[in-house]
Amino acid sequence: MSFFGKMFGKKGEQAPTTGEAIQKLRETENMLIKKQEFLESKIEAELDIARKNGSKNKRVAIQALKRKKKYEKQLQQIDGTLSTIEMQREALESANTNTAVLTTMKNAADALKAAHNNMDVDQIHDMMDDIAEQQNIATEISDAISNPVSFGQDIDEDELEKELEELEQEELDKELLGVGPSATELPEVPSDEIKEKAKEKKKGLYSQSATAADTDDKDLKELMAWAE
């Protein structure tokens, strides 16, 4: 098998899923990052050698700088590879997300189609009309039950009103007859009590007259004494 066959697989071989491809890219990315860190440490080490031998051993310093350049070139290549792998990984992750979203949407569409499979729009409209009709019937029945049934509608209301007026007039006559006591029902006053009250009143008048006369005599005497 050729190198590319080993690397990319045989022709007609089933392609890996997006999840598997993303996992492989992450593994490769981690490996390159570790190699990148290793090269950075090697570059620092060669720089230290060049600094230490710059004035003492010029040949050793130049060899160290050459190795540093080689490591820097490898590091630059790894940086480019990491950028490419990162773009591929992000594209695969986006494709994987889109695939999951589309799969979910398709499943939802299939479920909705299955739910509507046994439904007919005309049948739904007919069913709703039947429901509305039955609701109207139920309302009419409730109204009929709630209305009181009237019995005895053949009674003459004018006759009832006349009878009521007669009853009211009868009650009014009773009230007028019982307004106050008659002359025959007035209580009798004893004659002896009347005579006694008359004597007391007359005696009081005599007493007031005597008191007034005594007062006048006293005033007259004082006036005559003052004149002398």
UniProtKB/TrEMBL annotation:
Taxonomic lineage of the native organism: Eukaryota, Metazoa, Ecdysozoa, Arthropoda, Hexapoda
Annotated segments matching region Disordered: 179-216
Localization annotation: Late endosome
UniProt keyword annotations, A-Z: Coiled coil, Endosome
GO biological process, one term: late endosome to vacuole transport via multivesicular body sorting pathway
InterPro entries for this protein: Snf7_fam
Protein's recorded name: Uncharacterized protein
Recorded family membership: Belongs to the SNF7 family.
Any one Gene Ontology cellular component term annotated for this protein: cytoplasmic side of plasma membrane
Coiled coil start-end: 150-177
Gene source species: Phlebotomus papatasi (Sandfly)
